User: Which sequence fits this backbone?
């Protein structure tokens, strides 16, 4: 899929929101297939995450648990997690919220395919304006929810703390805000791959980390903040804050779907950061992206896929 920085962020390249001046703006629509493929690979982990959030909410238990009736998936992309939530919380309506209509179309098509059509709805909203109702589309705010989920979207907004404050503000008492941000960077190659200088993955990470920093600094209203997500949730007024990390671990040899994802990922690396790599690393990247080469990512036997997704959570006090 898209370039994936050392901090577990996701980004691409294009002209979507038009905020970048140095190749850090993002065309989300062109990333639709990559986003959905990656989320498909991650499905087992996402189902575990949903089950964990269900436990945190006490949903399904008798007594003090929160009845989960409405869930917001903020920056849903193609809605893979929205559908997982609709499966996990059988009584809930799930609202997939995103600024890219083509991705919301995918979310609707997916929900239809999975027989969840009635319970997954979509809302086109440009954030952060869309959180408060002043989104320029005249569509109003997002309403309240028992669970607000946002995966790898908050870091695309200038004011991350302000966004969390707004998301915490739409929670019903006892509701949970869960944000997937940070985590453990993706690994998919051995240290020495037999071409070029060993350790290329770390150099990809370093180049992508610089790209990410430039991307954030160019966002409208960009504010630097220490990215301690549980502490930020606490400042948003939530209690019981904490985090957990789940790993996707696909050992070699990879199947075609995982290889196709890595091919798309490396294509993004070439598009976004190849200028920051030296000539030898650029040559290595070309070999990895050669579909005919036995050392290419589509064919080499040693490629694997390992990464960790960290989810930070907090609960709105009942008062
Ligand atoms: C990296 S993708 C994450 C998609 C999905 N949540 C996932 O984890 O796979 C970021 C998503 O946020 C959306 N997005 C980014 N900036 C946005 C903004 N300012 N307003 C609304 N949506 C935005 C993009 O359209 C994209 O679908």
Assistant:
């Amino acid at each position: 899929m898209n370039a994936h920085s050392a901090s577990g962020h996701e980004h691409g390249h294009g002209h979507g929101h038009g905020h970048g001046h140095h190749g850090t703006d993002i065309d989300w629509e062109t990333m639709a297939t990559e986003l959905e493929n990656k989320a498909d690979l991650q499905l087992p982990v996402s189902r575990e995450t949903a089950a964990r959030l269900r436990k945190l909410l006490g949903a399904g238990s008798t007594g003090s648990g929160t009845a989960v009736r409405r869930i917001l998936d903020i920056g849903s992309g193609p809605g893979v997690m929205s559908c997982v939530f609709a499966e996990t919380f059988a009584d809930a309506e799930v609202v997939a919220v995103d600024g890219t209509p083509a991705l919301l179309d995918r979310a609707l098509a997916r929900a239809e395919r999975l027989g969840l059509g009635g319970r997954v709805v979509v809302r086109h909203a440009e954030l952060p304006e869309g959180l408060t109702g002043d989104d320029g589309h005249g569509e109003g705010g997002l309403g309240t929810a028992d669970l607000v989920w946002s995966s790898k979207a908050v870091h695309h907004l200038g004011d991350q703390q302000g966004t969390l404050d707004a998301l915490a503000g739409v929670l019903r008492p006892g509701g949970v805000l869960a944000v997937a941000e940070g985590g453990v960077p993706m690994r998919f190659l051995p240290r020495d791959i037999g071409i070029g200088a060993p350790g290329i993955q770390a150099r990809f990470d370093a180049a992508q980390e610089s790209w990410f920093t430039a991307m954030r600094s160019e966002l409208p209203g960009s504010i630097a903040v220490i990215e301690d997500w549980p502490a930020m949730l606490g400042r948003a007024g939530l209690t019981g804050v904490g985090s957990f990390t789940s790993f996707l671990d696909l050992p070699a040899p990879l199947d075609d779907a995982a290889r196709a994802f890595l091919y798309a990922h490396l294509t993004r690396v070439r598009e976004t950061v190849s200028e920051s790599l030296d000539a030898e690393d650029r040559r290595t990247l070309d070999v990895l992206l050669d579909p005919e080469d036995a050392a290419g990512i589509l064919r080499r036997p040693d490629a694997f896929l390992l990464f960790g997704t960290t989810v930070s959570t907090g609960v709105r006090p009942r008062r």
Remarks:
- Residues 1-8, 10-22 have pLDDT under 50 and may be disordered.
